[in-house]
Design brief:
Blueprint: E1 10-11, E2 14-15, E3 24-28, E4 34-37, H1 39-65, H2 80-93, H3 100-126, E5 139-140, E6 144-145, H4 146-173, H5 176-231, H6 242-245, H7 251-269, H8 277-301, H9 306-314, H10 324-340
Antiparallel strand pairs: 1-2, 3-4, 5-6
Helix pairs in contact: 1-2, 1-5, 2-3, 3-4, 5-7, 5-8, 7-8
Length: about 350
């Protein structure tokens, strides 16, 4: 990767002037001659629309939530999806300049494809969705929907015909050296921000995985207790149909169910001859495991890491198909902690 201009500036170890001949043709200057954007200018546009998107979405969500929300994946005032979307709109519309209809359909296809790929990749990596269209009509896997696709087409026209022109004039008016320095500083800052945000998102994913694992272990203990109850002669005929149903119990309900079983076994130990020492040891071991998993789950839900808490606060609509219960528990803890601060 490189950025046009002064060879004294380098990004990622490559001279800034290395791509002047490979710049992508975009836009027109005042003399109707085709203007070539350098990589520096492309990056400027990307950062500008990242910031513009952050201003728009943070304002919208803040009004909706009735509190200030620093919206987005990163900590700084930038939303990479908006920057990527803007660049994509400029690229896909370029071959169809002058034809509004084709620009519209190019924007629909390009932006929808970007939204789908981004949503799928982020969920695969982080196990959560930062947006979800599952409740919308004509949606696909919750990542895209028809109404969003229609809107992307109109936004592409707005971007190419209205919004980008003054932004382009401003970028072209900036001194080349100043633009290089500005873009270089932003690249370093955003790279560091992205690295921290990515780590926080991966750590949050690990918390969700461990919380779900704790619940699955409680379900395993529950099944084993049902076997023990059967061995000592307790009636479990009515429980056979419940085993599958219990898989859908929430964590607190599962705790309550297990505590009832442990209490029942404690009572049975005093009156059942089938309650042997071996069974007593097994129940004691299961009880120790139970307390360990409950303690671990409680520790994880405390979410002590600031960046993980901020990730949840910045994305109040975050959801998860597999870890929905654990994520909602974390959201509740973070909101209560925020109120107490």
């Amino acid at each position: 990767m490189s950025i046009v201009e002064n060879n004294s500036f380098r990004i990622f170890g490559m001279p800034l002037g290395a791509v002047s001949c490979a710049s992508i043709i975009m836009g027109e200057n005042e003399g109707d001659e085709m203007y070539q954007y350098s990589l520096t200018q492309w990056l400027f546009f990307f950062y500008f629309y990242c910031f513009f998107g952050w201003c728009f979405e943070s304002s919208f969500v803040s009004v909706k939530e009735r509190r200030l929300v620093n919206r987005g994946f990163m900590r700084g005032p930038f939303l990479p999806l908006y920057g990527s979307g803007a660049i994509m709109m400029l690229l896909v519309s370029r071959p169809f300049q002058g034809n509004i209809v084709l620009i519209y359909f190019a924007g629909c296809v390009g932006a929808t494809a970007l939204e789908y790929v981004t949503g799928a990749v982020m969920e695969a990596l982080f196990k959560v969705r930062y947006w979800d269209y599952s409740n919308q009509k004509f949606q696909l896997h919750g990542y895209i929907c028809l109404s969003s696709t229609i809107a992307w087409g109109f936004l592409t026209i707005l971007m190419t015909e209205v919004v980008h022109k003054p932004v382009e004039r401003f970028a072209l008016s900036l001194p080349e050296n100043l633009l290089n320095v500005f873009v270089t500083v932003l690249t370093v800052a955003l790279s560091a921000d992205f690295a921290l945000s990515f780590k926080a998102a991966m750590d949050l994913r690990d918390v969700l995985l461990k919380m779900e694992s704790a619940k699955e272990n409680l379900q395993r203990i529950q099944k084993r207790l049902d076997v023990v109850i059967a061995v000592i002669g307790e009636d479990i005929n009515n429980r056979v149909g419940e085993l599958e149903e219990r898989k859908n119990l929430g964590f607190e309900e599962l705790k309550e169910s297990l505590e009832e079983r442990f209490d029942g076994l404690h009572t049975a130990a005093q009156k059942s001859s089938a309650y042997t020492e071996r069974i007593r040891e097994e129940v004691r071991e299961l009880l120790n495991q139970y307390h360990g998993y409950v303690t671990e789950r409680s520790r994880l839900s405390g979410l002590r890491d600031f960046f993980q808490r901020d990730m949840i606060l910045s994305n109040p609509t975050m959801s998860s198909r597999r870890f929905g219960e654990a994520l909602e528990e974390l959201k509740k803890v973070v909101q209560e902690r925020r109120k107490g601060e």
